[in-house]
Amino acid sequence: MADESGATAFSAFLRTLMHRDRAELSRVARELAVAENTVYRWMNGTSDPRTIHLKKLPGAIPEHRNELIAVINQTFGDILSTSVSGVREVRKEVYQNVLELAASSQDNDARFWQVTECIFTDALRQLSSEQWGLAITYTKLMPPHEDGIHSLREVKMRGYAPWPASVESKAFLGVTSLVGSAAVSQRIQIWNDNDDGRAMVEIDEYERSACAVPVLRGGLLAGVLVVSSTQLEFFKDPATCQIVAEYALLMGVALCDREFHPSELLHLRPMPPLRWQREEINRSYLNRIIAYAHAHGMSRRDAEFWIQHTMELEFEQEAHRLLTQQRLGHPASLPSKISNH
Hints:
With 341 residues, this protein is α+β, with helices and mostly antiparallel strands.
């Protein structure tokens, strides 16, 4: 509600953030792809942002994200918690394209790449017509150890801002993740930022809600497809969850038989925080692959397999160290860096 001067809680809060900070105002305008004068009008209360810009603002000013969400909802209604509308099913053209790509692919890698590109591109367009605040990731089961499968690893991700278009630092997801819960239960799992169980689930940086669906074939599991949103309760509408489940069903077309495993092999372990994992992978992953390939006279592909195996075990040990500290009541220290060996 506006006061006599036309100011609203939203415009007043924007003024407190940017009225003396021209550089910040310019940065926010660039982030939202609007003119600086447009942001000035929002601050003065002489015009209101379009819905697409209201939804982007919390991500554009992440240090004040929660306060922005509160004043936006106070001023404009519960606009940031609205779910997808008008989405009911995957178009039949997508099914046709996926089947044609699978039939014409020359090898397993090409089939996976082409089919997942088709699925991810359509999913992002269907679920976020505004091209903002959504990410889709496929995680596959890591190869079994002697005592079973310890984690899943991110294989492919596509996203809209604030997520990057794709990620190179592919993390390991274990028993404390939503992906892990979907894998173990072999059922769809939904998470919201206001859930009581937040502390029990490893959350990515921008996630406020997520839907994870296992990728199954004949009772065997290959991985989990997860869609993440910056919006609270994005998956409140069952139709939105159903369309994610359809994309997970299509994912099975991209995979070969050897990628599917019985659920009895799952012995998922805790893994370190995602941010720490990504920093560690960015720091050392490629150099370790190159060094291992050179030292053992093998291809980069084979070296990458062994480095993934080694880092999975190292990350397990790091997570175990952190959990042990917590159980003993010690303050949780920062995760340690792993030496390149």
